[in-house]
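Hi all, long-time lurker, first post. I run a small reading group and we've been trying to get comfortable going from sequence to structure in the token notation. Rather than ask abstract questions, I figured I'd post a concrete chain and ask someone more experienced to write out its structure so we can walk through it together at our next meeting. Sequence below, copied exactly:
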Amino acid sequence: MNPRSTGAESPRRRIVAPWVGTRLRTAPGAAVAFAVLVLLTAFVAAAFPRAVDSYENRGLRHDLRDASASRSVLELSTPQPPLQMPQAAREEALRPERLADAHREVVELLPEPLRADAAQSAHGVRTAKGLIGSDRWLPRPDSLPPEFVLAAQSGIAGHSTVREGRLPRTAGEVTATTKQLEAAVTAETAKTMRIKVGSVVHLGEPGTPALSVRITGIVDPRDPHGSYWSAEELLRTPGLLAKPSSPPPLYWQAALLIAPEAAPALLGTLGEPEPYWRIAPATGHLTRQDVPRLTEQVASLEGGPELLKIKSVVDENAALSTDIDGILASYTAMREAIAPVVAVAAFGIGTVAAVVMSMTGGLFAARRRAELELLRSRGGSLRGIGGRLLAETAVVALPAAAAGLLLAVLVVDEARLLPAVVGAGAVALAACAALPLRAVVQHRKPRPPGERDDLVLARPSKRRTVAELTLLVLAVGAVAALRRRGTSDGADHLVSAAPVLVGLIAALVLVRLYPLPLRWAARPAGRLRGAVGFLALARTGRSSAAGALPLLALLVALTTAAFGGSVLAGVADARDRAALLATGADARISGPGDSVALPEGAERAVRDVAGVKDLTAVRIEHALTLPARDRNEPADSPAVSLVAADPDSYARLARDLHLGAFPADALAVRTAGGKQVLHAVASPGVAKWLGDGTHRITSLAGGFDVEISTVRARTPAVASAEFLVVDGSRLTNRAPTALLATGAGIDGKALRAAVHGMDDDVTLRLRDEARATFTDSPLQSGAERIYAVAIAAGAGYAVLALLLSLLQSAPERATLLARLRTMGLNTRQSRQLLGLEALPQALLAALGGILVGWATIQLLAPGVDLVRLALAAAPGTAPVDSASLRADPWSLALPAAGVVVLAGAVAAVQAWWAGRRGSITELRAGDMR
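-- Answer (accepted) --
Happy to help. Here is the structure in token form:
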């Protein structure tokens, strides 16, 4: 039977192949490659905000945890019980049970997100005023008796280890009339104050009843840097204080740790005992999003509704003090300084990834042009074709994007999920829409078979010209506004998009202009003997008008890499500079405070250490008093550091370190009126204060007359801004207080061993160790890792953009080579042709990337200060006042050179592959390419 006669049954028997499954089986390699691209891009888009969240959260916890306990602890205190209260009630107010109940209530009243770290929190009673130790055997630096603070702090047994003796205890009930107590001291206190187990310390003002304290034990803190021992460092380490007089006499202050049950005995002294509660904050649950609320709650605790709640359960005169708000303010300032620098990387990588996605869709649409044209010719609608292509890509892109999101969540923890979902979702949307949109745009109108798409016939339309001019005007206007306004007002999208804006301007201009010089160069090349050069220039000069996307991707990727490399180079330079200013050399050996003379033989011992090339001995005196400029109207002179050193050695040190170099004769000595006048190198402030002429200086090293000969902003020996450098051999006291060693590869272990063999008080600071102290914040290290990954991702996307651009025109190039080989073109000429054809575009991208990178750095440099990113210390305390962004030549040149090398390598591989396939494979009858 003729099948045509059963027309009514044919529709029911017809089997239609599923579009998606058929397409995936037809091109599994392309589907897998597309899935890998979407997975990696979704991973980057999801991991980036999670990484930023993660290092910001860790930075907040680090700042709160590593800040000194005296700043981070919430300290609640009340005055001593009033005198009008019955004595029994006053004593009851200091009992440990009463204080513990109040402690639990205070902890329960802490507002979220504040929580207490129970292990490091403590409460107790301390004397607000020190009690004088009257025993003659106690140390007296300037004949002044020491003062002792008595502290009855809870939990001493759980926070210390008994080295000798036992912990203090009480015998019976202690009252205000008790005059004999037991106490323990830390090992540092015992060593400094000459206290032993069994010693009795008598306390009290002269003429008042004395309090006898017998030492029953010496303890070692289990966590000396924890809040329990560091909220009041006097509990573990005695301090040397000065009386307010001139010269200031010194005296010791130390703490005696009594049993909590013995607190009522402090009411019988003049020490003004006060109860206190020290709440150490828990930081493990805090995130960056908690900072505004945390700041508000801390302010309320210091003087708001939350403080009133605490007063209602403790005492109406209670006061709460903390510097958590200062820590949060410093953290916020650092984060706001780092955020715009990191956002530049985010905008750059995001733009390059979006362009690569669009280029991928364009490549797929170009490879399937004949198939889609056939569908259009058979009646396929744009909506139907677009829907089928959308379904086809969604089957691959959505699972890949979900896998990228899952991988990002597993790799980067302690971060919010929503930003990662948004990033991965944006990648999935772009991946699904790239191919359908490109295909629909290309097939809106039918095209004749074999129509050329280069600049010979395919001129840019008026709509495209208007769109490009509009984008160009908007980008130029945005860059002009950014340049006029500056970047110091804070981070916004305009600042972060600066590389994209400049790259867009360059791409739109270059893609229109670069064919002109190539066409001009093709004319003289046509008169040459060979045809390879002319063919390469002619083909490049009329290449596809759709080359703006790959050029934009390369320019933005190169700009991001150059900006990131310049940021990292600027950070490294700032840290090197700060470490140099902090140490003054590759190694610094000094006594306490640079004011105590080093022991004899120190210079010889350091010179014998391997790696020490040169050694400079200096005498340093801080807080030098300068003579008043106007004796009739005295004023406070600036804080000045005196540096006395050998002229030749110190001048050589300053010259080698490039730190305030000066000639050795700047420290010469002249004789005037029978007196020696020392020439000096001074800071600008000292030179302005002293002015011209000779001045008499009085110092601990002896008196001398000085005259300013040279002014320098810095000097190696001291980091202070104001200094005075003189010839040390002319002073009365010449003993050096510091040694500055230079040399490559100084043996740090041997040098440390030599220093420790001199004196326990002599300290060693290496330049490398000083540099490491500037990188202890997770905010800094996290931002650096983000930029390093951004540079790598930008390089990867740039390579992919270049490969996609070359792959899109690869079939046409292969056909051209096959035709030319039939005309006598050999293999060497094929390689030359493809290499010369790829070279102008690669050079355009490389030179454009260098230019755009340099322009972006110059645009953003005035408002980018790398101090926060480079140094852990806050501005004002860091040894480097500013670290400006500057263009790093290697960061500009290396990525650009990589683009040229890669383009040449791809061209060579393509020529080799085309030579293996042969002309018959490429040239087939009816092929319209």
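A couple of things your group might point at:
The mean pLDDT is 82.
Residues 324-367 form the longest helix (44 residues).
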